[in-house]
Design goal:
The structure is a homodimer of 413-residue chains. Chain A contains 15 helices and 15 strands. Chain A is an alpha/beta fold. In chain A, the strands form three sheets. Chain A has an eight-stranded mixed sheet with strand order 9-8-10-1-11-14-2-15, sandwiched between helices. In chain A, strands 3, 4, 5, 6 and 7 form a five-stranded antiparallel sheet that branches. In chain A, helix 5 (76-82) crosses helix 10, helix 11 (281-294) runs parallel beside helix 13 (314-334) and helix 12 (304-310) packs antiparallel against helix 13. The A-B interface holds A 14-15, 23, 44, 48-59, 61, 68-69, 72, 74-75, 228-229, 351, 353-354, 356-360, 381-382, 385-386, 390-391 and B 370-374, 386, 388-392, 396, 398-403, 406, 408-413.
Chain lengths: 413, 413
């Protein structure tokens, strides 16, 4: 038996007036998701705990069976490893942005005009050799990823992830001084290092001819690096070790890839899986159908539902849900249903009204052999609440799926 | 958005034969509570954990989002702070009763004939200067509240709340020797202090002319002080700090007030809110409607349902529930429903049959904007069990409400 887990990022929602009091899930035509609900067992899940809005990192950890309240150690390292930057257990990594600041170090543009990846790469070359006035005693790696995005990795002794962000998250605010969150000398040392680097980056960037060229072209100069989300790798047992399974993932987001990599899953590269509205769900379905032949567990993640929610676009969200339904339809047609469990859920609620992650539970449905089916006929936030799984936590989903695959270990004798 | 939480103390119950197998909630006419259920989302909540009967202190802590299993440190300090007796974090406070004992220190009347507050106050004056043979090294404060009730507060170094009661809780039993619950020297020291005080109080009281006068009048003398419920303040983050909200409470019971004070809520004084059958629910409703204009969260507590249950009076309990319904009706009419969440629940089950707090879950209903409504039409223990919230714990209610207000902080990034 195999299992496929389909996750629509931020797909769960609240009732929306413009959808006649329905949620986007309830308002969309999704015959395959409804078929899974009707032929399966349904429930609702709290991603972290009732009422707590989850970040995508914590929510994805939970879906893979890792309790975020126990294992979560920040986003930076997960994002880094998902961006193919090697991270060791003691490294501290930060998410960074190339940004535009004025003379007083006030942030003018947090993304330096969404600088093209090529320009960012050229600027990143300047940091290949980081010469500071003093030796900080750590190995410093800076790598840009897509557009303005980059990763800063610190490797060495006595580092801590317990430091604040230099990114003020708002235009018009000054670049923040990084400070220790706890009272340890490690946190103080790490904060000092990041503050020195922030200054160094600014000094190097402000004199750079690439920025002079950008200004001539009327583009905002990328004259600062903002850092946030200091993190270490979560200390988790990879799925292959924990359950004796082969696991794979189809996802576009570096963060989701990072979590899955930490979980020991194979990252499948699917051209056309973009993480945006135009993502190629047919290609994703094809990749899943192929992967399930040689893996016990395949996780497929679609980001665009969350994007539509953050954009406050209910119509678009309905459209993406219908696209996900088509993807699942291709998967259902492509696999042996006598030997395959299919689970559908969302990592968290993202409200098209607030544009934010919310702490409401998410619906879940699991169909396949051996399932204790219930009488839920439709996949939605309110219908699934009446299902046979009741109310549970996202961290419980993985053991439930693994139990159905016969992969969980007995507790007791 | 604002939120109002209405709590009927011990309002939840079990089916009662004399109510034709209905619970008091099910047997009462409560159109407004039913309207909230019909237009909201319902569920059931375990106040502490399934099957565990909660004390009022623990149950109220849970309703305000504090896990009693983690933060609870006895009732004494909560009762004291709710009676406007100042309590510092290291103080140990006890609930006390003036009582009547015979020559052998056997309890004859646990409440000294429910001695009038005036007599109790005069007796308390005798303790203004407590002169013991030896210096106990602590500051001792004794204050009477209503009738036979009083508070003993110990302030000083090396005190512990881990000591037993001197109150045997039954007539015909001797005053108990207070002993340490754990093996710490602090508990031993605290027990010794209370034992010395118990003896001192008895010696002072038995010679007092007020008691001689009481005996002449045929009243039981208040010749002893019984102590119970040693406690310290729970170490909690006040709601304003945790959620950035302004919170207020309308309640009559010192214990509930104490918990709310610890939670950083404003205590609203409502003349006519008595904590008994004759409590003025119209005045309470008015106070809530006014408070919600300047507060984000208003908690209104009605004690009389619990009183009726302890009295074993099902008819009376139905009557009080109908009174609560009228209160909620006034609240519903007084607020802007487009901007206000209203939640209704009970702190615990109090059975009119057993007269005791029981460990059954309580019903809950929340109505307001953004709610994922369900198809429950009536507010009751059994109807709400089929609601969209499923089964949760009381400690989860506050994060759920704060999430709907947009006040919870994201976990993860």
């Amino acid at each position: 038996m195999k299992a496929i887990l389909v996750v629509g990022d931020g797909m769960a929602d609240r009732p929306v007036k413009e959808l006649k009091g329905k949620t986007p899930l309830e308002a969309s035509k999704k015959p395959t998701l409804d078929w899974i609900a009707a032929n399966g067992i349904c429930g609702i899940m709290d991603p972290i705990a009732p009422g707590i809005p989850p970040g995508s990192d914590a929510a994805t950890l939970a879906l893979l069976g890792y309790d975020p309240l126990k294992v979560y150690r920040g986003r930076g390292a997960l994002e880094a490893i998902g961006s193919e930057i090697d991270i060791k257990p003691d490294d501290v990594a930060f998410r960074c942005n190339f940004a535009t600041v004025d003379k007083n170090l006030t942030v003018v543009d947090r993304r330096a005009g969404r600088i093209e990846t090529e320009d960012a790469s050229r600027l990143t070359q300047r940091f290949k050799k980081i010469h500071l006035k003093e030796d900080l005693g750590v190995e410093i790696t800076f790598a840009n990823t897509v557009q303005h995005r980059a990763i800063l990795r610190l490797r060495g002794p006595r580092l801590s992830m317990m430091v604040t962000d230099s990114d003020p998250q708002k235009v018009g605010k000054p670049v923040l001084r990084v400070s220790p969150i706890d009272g340890t000398p490690e946190a103080q040392r790490t904060a000092d290092i990041v503050n020195k680097l922030t200054q160094h980056f600014h000094e190097v960037l402000k004199k750079d001819p690439i920025n002079a060229e950008r200004v001539r072209k009327g583009l905002p100069p990328a004259n600062a690096v903002l850092s946030r989300g200091a993190g270490k790798l979560p200390d988790v047992i990879p799925l292959p070790l924990q359950y004796g399974i082969r696991a794979a993932v189809v996802a576009a987001m570096p963060l989701v890839k990072g979590v899955c990599k930490v979980a020991g899953m194979k990252l499948l590269d699917v051209p056309g899986a973009t993480g945006t509205y135009d993502t190629d769900v047919v290609a994703k379905a094809r990749a899943v159908v192929q992967a399930v032949r040689s893996h016990d567990f395949v996780f497929v993640h679609v980001k665009a539902t969350d994007v539509a929610s953050h954009d406050g676009n209910a119509e678009k969200k309905v459209m993406i849900i219908e696209k996900i339904d088509k993807m699942v339809s291709s998967i259902v047609k492509g696999v042996d249903l006598d030997e395959t469990l299919i689970a559908v859920t969302s990592d968290h609620t993202t409200s098209v009204l607030t544009g934010d992650h919310e702490g409401d539970p998410v619906p879940v449905a699991i169909s396949g052999p051996g399932i204790r089916t219930d009488d839920v006929e439709e996949f939605g936030e309110r219908t699934c609440a009446k299902g046979g799984l009741g109310r549970m936590r996202s961290v419980d989903l993985m053991p439930i799926i693994m139990n159905l695959l016969g992969k969980t270990r007995k507790f007791g004798a």
